[in-house]
Amino acid sequence: MFDSILQNFFNALQWGSFYSLIALGYTLVYGVLRLINFAHGDIFMVGAYIAFFVATFFLGNAVSPATALALTIPLTMILTALVGVSLERIAYRPLRRKGAHRLYVVITALMCGLILENGNLAILGASRKSFPQLLDKSIYTIGPVSLTNQKIAVIACAILVFLFLQFVVTRTKTGMAMRAISYDKFAIPLMGIPLDTVIVFTFVLGSSFAGLAGLLFALSYPVLDPYMGAIVGWKAFISAVVGGIGDIRGAFVGGFLLGFVEILVVAFFPSTYRELIAFTILLVILYKKPTGIFGVAGTTKI
Amino acid sequence: MKRSFVLGAMLSAMLFAGSALAETIKIGFNIPLTGDIPKVGEASKFAAEMLKEEINSKGGLEVGGKKYQLEFIYEDNESKAESAVAAALKLIEQNEVLAIVGPNSSKQAIPAGQVANDNETPMISPWSTNPDTTKDRPWVFRAAFLDPFQGPIAVDFVKKQFGAKSAAVLFALDNDYSKGLAEIFRTEFEKKNGQGSITAFESYSSKDQDFSAQLTKIIASNPDVIFLPDNYNEVALIVKQAHDLGWKGPFMGSDAWGSAELMPLCGKDCVGQYFSTHYAAAGAKGDTKVFIDRYTAKYGYAPDDVAALTWDATRIVLTAIQDAGKLTGNVRKDRKAIRDAMAAIKEFKGVTGNMKFDDQGDPIKCAVVVKIAEDGQFTFAESVCP
Asked: 10 Å Cβ neighbour count for A189?
């Protein structure tokens, strides 16, 4: 029994890492713009597909898998960031300029997500893509626990990304500007802070890490389909809310919390009741603390 | 003046279309072209197109001394139950098809079968193996064997091949096929190996990508074999993750593994595993080989069991139409005649083997167990006949 708990602990760390990485993107955008970017789960999906095409391109040109991986990581992040920024430019900025209510922007985000999903379906077809193996998989067995090098890399990445974002938001000037915008986006331009630049920067951060999450996800679960981002994205959003949306620590902790709850429920109860029990637990947490674990009560929320 | 001209043009176009339609036979296909298992829809469509081209190039299907061109209408059911119902209704009411082939998965075939039965339209599912699809539905038929037959085959095979005295099962909770077969396997296995011989009986939902918690539980229970009555796309992930978690034992699969897309997704992790299915493409003879060669030449990959079963199912429909004698042009009357003719077919020789039909509209036919070879081919291991 203890053996499988230990194994499940690492399973949960890996699974929670993905929720965390995606939740960070939700929370960044929300923290700055007070906008729930519902297209974020689909940006994650686009990231996985970009990683697929970049990786197969390099492998097709006789680059060794290790070099291909080294090139795929930055390229995927840059290209996915471009997708995120274009979305902001095409869909969200015009609405913001016209002073549209946040509700309309959220609906726009939902629609953008659907467009990304169905655009992918229309262009690439419904057939699944098999992600090439870029990392030579080695399985380490330490006592009762089996770990792969991929699993360790995923967990390490999630932690590093969190530390990096926490540093950017709390310790840099740009981070200060980001936080300032969330307080008062009308007064900020008067202080000489370029509003649009900071917002673009936020989208670059959120989307590039969604791209990284997509790449890591594709490495761990190498079957890609156009809807892969929908459910994971929703659940990551839920974990961002449970952690306290708008707070980097909240997204990080919330992601792992959901991962642990989902995995441990299966470990102790019949797997038939997984979602039922998992989401009941989250509901209870929100009932006790409606603003989430790290959240502070805001006056206007969607 | 202008309006009446347009109206007249529309009327004559409709009349013209009407007279042209009288010379065709319309058959609907309710298949998953997108969604979870798009390769299944593609295989069905490819097989049907091949059959249609063959018959239409010879001038059409001869019914009662008159030749009719075939018109196949493909409706995408997105691999969802509700879309399968909508697709069936559209084919029946809007397209006025004489018969429906599909849906393939039991998850869609069970609700769509209800629609076809209520609307008195003959329907034949190529791939559905759950008993409920045809049960007490005189208008619904199938070309595949049933899970109460397939389950025991898996039980006997793992005992013989691996000497398995215990087994674990991982199935999709929201998939009628997977759940039904998992339960049959459990009952049968416990009957033969005693209570408690199923060490773990775990489930997931169809959109899941991470199975580590269930697999950790399964591996900790230390079974001799893991039975996976799951769709090929999930199998690819489950098998890989089980190996990552240190599982070195065998897997046993069911006919939902048998897609041409299994190996591209699963790769070397699936090599050496066994599953029960409808036919083995490698090493086939006679008509089956002719079919396989033509399909491979046309589409560039060997037909999987869905393709072969769709071929058979469509041919059963066409045979029934010919047996019906003549077409009156009255859709309701013709549907009834086709249903009666289909129910009257006692024996049918298909590319997936000979089938005899019982009074539920289910075929009695042999199943095969195949092994996944090093090169990704599904090679014949054993044949089991009822």
From this structure: 12
The residue written with tokens 């890989």 in the block is B240
Per CB-CB distance under 8 Å, the chain B contacts of A268 are: none
Q: Compute the residue count for chain B.
A: 386
Q: Is the pLDDT of residue A31 over 80?
A: yes
Local structure of B48: helix, strand or coil: helix
Q: Are the beta carbons of B181 and B162 closer than 8 angstroms? A: no
* Mean pLDDT value of segment B251-268: 91
- Are the C-beta atoms of A18 and A217 separated by less than 8 Å? yes
Q: Which of A52, A56, A117, A128 to mutate to test the interface with B (most CBs of B within 10 A)?
A: A128
Does the beta carbon of A231 lie under 8 angstroms from any beta carbon of chain B? Answer: yes
Give just the sign of the alpha carbon dihedral B91, B97, B99, B100. Answer: negative
In this predicted structure, the answer to whether residue A214 has a pLDDT above a threshold of 70 is yes
Cβ-based neighbours of A246, under 8 Å, separated by 6 or more: A27, A30, A31, A34, A182, A295, A298
The ipTM assigned to this model is 0.87
Crossing angle of helices A274-288 and A248-268, rounded to 10°: 140
List, for residues B22-59, the tens digit of each pLDDT value.
478 999 999 999 888 889 999 999 999 999 999 999 98
Please say if the pLDDT value at position A13 is more than 60: yes
Q: What 8-state DSSP symbol labels residue B70? A: E
- The answer to whether B369 touches B274, Cβ cutoff 8 Å, is yes
DSSP state of B249: S
Does A127 touch chain B if contact means CB atoms closer than 8 Å?
A: yes
Q: Do B38 and A126 touch (CB under 8 A)?
A: yes
- Cα B89 to Cα B83, B121, B147, B176, B340: the distances in Å are 10, 10, 27, 21, 21
Residue B191 has a CB neighbour count (10 Å cut-off) of 12
Q: Taking the CB of residue B220, how many other CB atoms lie within 10 A of it?
A: 20
**Backbone φ and ψ of B234, nearest 5°:** -75, -35
Check CB contact of A5 with chain B, cutoff 8 Å. no
Q: Distance (Å, rounded) from C-alpha A174 to C-alpha A165?
A: 11
- With contacts defined as CB-CB under 8 Å, which chain B residues touch A141? 246
Domains (range + CATH), chain B = 2-145+285-365 (3.40.50.2300), 147-277 (3.40.50.2300)
CA–CA gap between residue A296 and residue A218 (Å, rounded): 35
Half-sphere exposure (CA, 13 Å, Cβ side) for A1? 1
Interface of B with A in 231-290 (CB under 8 A): 233, 236-237, 240, 243-246, 261, 264-265, 267
Domains of chain A, by residue range, sit at 13-225
What would the DSSP string read from start to end of chain A?
-HHHHHHHHHHHHHHHHHHHHHHHHHHHHHHHHS---TTHHHHHHHHHHHHHHHHHHHHHTT--HHHHHHHHHHHHHHHHHHHHHHHIIIIIHHHHHTT--HHHHHHHHHHHHHHHHHHHHHHH-SS-EEPP--S---EEEETTEEEEHHHHHHHHHHHHHHHHHHHHHHHSHHHHHHHHHHH-TTTTGGGT--HHHHHHHHHHHHHHHHHHHHHHHHHHS-EE-TTHHHHHHHHHHHHHHHH-TT-HHHHHHHHHHHHHHHHHHHHHS-GGGHHHHHHHHHHHHHHH-TT-SS----S---
